[in-house]
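Moderator note: this is an archived Q&A kept for reference. The question asked for a predicted structure of one protein chain; the sequence and the answer are reproduced below.
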Amino acid sequence: MAVEVLLPKIGLTMQEGTIDEWLVPAGAAVAEGDALLRLATDKVDVDVEAEAGGLFHPVVPAGVTVPTGSVIGWLLAEGEHPPGPAGTPMPEGSGVGAGTSPPALNGTGAVPAVPSANGAESAVPSVNGIAGRLLSSPNARRVATAADVDLTAVRGTGPGGRIVSEDVEEFLAALPGDLGDLGDLGEPVAPGGTSYSPLVRKLAKERGIDLSEVNGTGPGGRIRRSDLDAVTPAPPRRDTAPPRRDAAPRPGDVIPLTGMRGTIARRMHASLQEMAQLTHGYEVRMDAVVSLRDRLKEEWADSDLPVPSINDFLLKAAALALREHPLLNATVREDGVHLLDGIHLGFAVAVPGGLMVPVIEDAVQLPLPEMARRSRDLARAAREGRISPAQLEGATFTVTSLGGYGVDFFTPVINPGNVAILGVGRLRDGVEWADDRPLRTRVLTLSLTFDHRAVDGAPAAEYLRIVGDLLSRPLRLLV
């Protein structure tokens, strides 16, 4: 019996996703739990596994954005055909449906054009086996854009001739003048009939590898550079590619409001439109925290306990203060302000192209060393692209810091679903007067933005006072 492959809904807020790459070719046999595709969501990229076994029949091309719940493929028994109009057979190994695409696909139901290296849609005659469309992965397009490579000159080796990033890199490495004479750019063939690229041939010669003894993992058993690496690890790589353009935004660029950037734009705009937001600024003394942290560095030097950062102290103080001010740990719904049971602390992490908000669950219950360990692990996973959607869901209150960028005070925007967010400025020198004598202090400014529909100014100010009091006696934060 045919089994639908649906675009999964990952997290409460996901409404659509982009099929970044099919990980198995059309017609391949897959088992339950095998990775089917790489899915790009508004927060993270994840591998999606098959929920059943069968012969895989995709009906949506890679690179297309579809709503959650859409049929994107089928898992079939031997000799079985996909049911319904969405099951029109695709050209073998093409990755692009020859028949009707799922309803509301990009609003049209038609297979979209694929952007070329310079960002324009590429409509080319019969390239990579697909008439009128150039198939390439998002990462291949990024690499090609950075190196000024015309993708129509690159031979794709992915499913259906789709260009992947390794194809672009091999094309660059095969350019004359960088790696020496690679011979003609045709497809050499190993004695066993397996093909490989000119770059693979040269690397195999440099490493003393007999290509006839290498098992190729590419389409049709094609030997790839990764297959050589499995035999003999690659030496440190020389910078052989042509000079690449700066990837930083420049005047004249257009940054599409899609993916993470689009989600941030929509959510922040909705936040400011739907809430009555205002911000309190409050200066807190940090001398005791700085002193305690210096002691912990010495006392825990030979232990496996992580030394909490300044932000870790602030996270714990923010969580503990919420116990006394539950109105700030709440959400506004049509029938009123709902006070939430658990205190699940989100903290903003800057990542390329935007920010993520990992969540420390039940933050009040965690000793400070454990909170420090979790915050570091989650921040590292977010920056390295390894964080899971579940780790980004469920924040009841958020803390965001710009102190590392030298900012003293700012007005953070509330994460929709919450009623408050705490901003943290930089640690700086202050002055306190004692008997007409100036004393140097260590201070920072907190910026509490709150939804005036749920919280009034006085309790918001009292919350900040409690946070400051906790930071003035930080030993209470360790447990």
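Archived answer notes: Residues 1-111 form a domain with the OB fold (Dihydrolipoamide Acetyltransferase, E2P) fold (CATH 2.40.50.100).
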